[in-house]
Design brief:
By secondary structure, the protein is α+β, with helices and mostly antiparallel strands. It contains 14 helices and 17 strands. The protein is 35% helix and 20% strand. It is globular.
């Protein structure tokens, strides 16, 4: 499966095309809209999310709620377009004067502004801002919902929750002592997507401080993938490795600067005899591990344990204080532009992370079990699980 996104942050619509998605998948539009709503929520979001009420509009590839195997196309309308029609109009009227629309010339450090304007030879940074904006991730969340609805047929579950905001980080022992599905589901009941109430409260206080100081915050979130059978991915080529592909998809999320798989950071300071997950066997579990430092991935393949991914985000580059920068026209020292923005987008990023992980997994699952029709994929998956069970 592959997908493309198009559209500008304040343009008329965002749109997406999904190709090579299997036929016969029952798609619930309401589930897609729920995912879009999850992305819009989160303590620390800006006023833009009070304007938008994202909803998907399917254009092709689905009939009578079932996918056809042909390309799926869809749009998400930008309600804020009404406030930006003059600035973002594709064509200007003959009587319109260029200087009526103010050019943006003070790039934000940490954003695509400066390098994008150099690369594409723009005199107005607005041309970079609109496409590099994280607003584009609404399309990824729609595509991720299609992917989740596919993976649901195979009982593959994807959870996420926020583990850190600024210097406030959930304690490892809280995570280790709460591994049931209900713990992960608690994140959806929290407006900061942290399942531990005390830590969530401290995180919100941290965001309030940043808002008061006209600053922004980064943080981290964890993704847990359950019921992934062993053998997804491959060691035979570098671009077929499960860990490499998950990293590729997750690192594409705006503001993501680091990714840890399992206890990968700890691995660099550990002895091999203390870190690697020893192998056991019994008739009920078959092959299993008593620990999961590898995060469910060995040799570029899933090993049957939970896949654990920890994703780290930098603070949002758009701050109300602004940062020192250089005007691209006259090269004078200036303060960076102050676009309307979030104080902290980590809760929303965790939803985008789920979506991107789901998209990556669909590709690998299709490589293993087929790509044309969901019933064929289910049958192949069932046969593979039986093979594993009989070992």
């Amino acid at each position: 499966m592959e997908f493309l996104t198009a559209g500008e942050s304040h343009g008329k619509v965002l749109c997406g095309i999904i190709n090579d998605y299997p036929s016969g998948v029952l798609i619930k539009k309401e589930d897609i809209d729920i995912e879009l709503l999850r992305r819009q929520k989160g303590y620390g979001r800006g006023k833009r999310m009070q304007i938008e009420k994202d909803e998907v509009e399917i254009l092709s590839g689905i009939r009578n709620n079932l996918t056809l195997g042909s390309p799926i196309s869809f749009i998400v309308r930008n309600k804020d377009w009404d406030n930006w029609k003059k600035v973002m109009a594709p064509f200007k009227q003959d009587n319109e004067i260029d200087h009526q629309i103010k050019e943006v010339q003070n790039p934000r450090p940490g954003h695509a502004d400066l390098i994008g304007s150099i690369k594409y030879r723009f005199k107005d940074i607005r041309n970079v801002i609109e496409r590099s904006s994280a607003r584009e991730t609404a399309v990824r969340v729609v595509t991720g919902s299609f992917s989740k609805q596919f993976l649901k047929y195979l009982n593959i579950k994807i959870y996420s929750f926020v583990t850190g905001i600024g210097e406030i980080v959930i304690k490892d022992d809280i995570i280790l002592n709460n591994q049931d599905d209900d713990f992960f589901k608690k994140a959806d009941l929290s407006d900061i997507r942290c399942p531990d109430e005390k830590t969530a409260s401290d995180m919100k206080n941290e965001i309030d401080k940043a808002f008061k100081n006209k600053d922004t915050l980064g943080g981290s979130f964890l993704i847990c993938i359950r019921n992934m059978p062993c053998g997804i991915g491959s060691y035979t080529q570098w671009n077929k490795r499960l860990d490499a592909l998950l990293s590729y998809y997750l690192m594409s999320i705006p503001s993501v600067k680091a990714l840890e798989i399992g206890n990968g950071i700890k691995a660099s300071t550990s002895l091999g005899t203390k870190f690697h997950d020893e192998i056991f066997y019994n008739e009920t579990k078959k092959y299993y591990r008593s620990s999961n430092n590898a995060g469910g991935i060995e040799g570029g393949m899933s090993n049957g344990e939970d896949i654990i991914l920890k994703v780290f985000l930098k603070p949002i580059p758009t701050t109300m204080k602004g940062l020192k920068t250089i005007n691209i026209k006259d090269k004078s020292q200036k303060i960076s532009i102050k676009e309307r923005s979030d104080i902290c987008a980590v809760p929303a990023a965790s939803i985008i992370g789920e979506a991107m992980a789901a998209i990556a997994l669909v590709n690998l699952v299709q490589d293993k079990f087929g790509r044309d029709n969901i019933q064929e994929i289910i049958e192949n998956h069932k046969n593979y699980l039986k093979y594993i069970k009989d070992i």
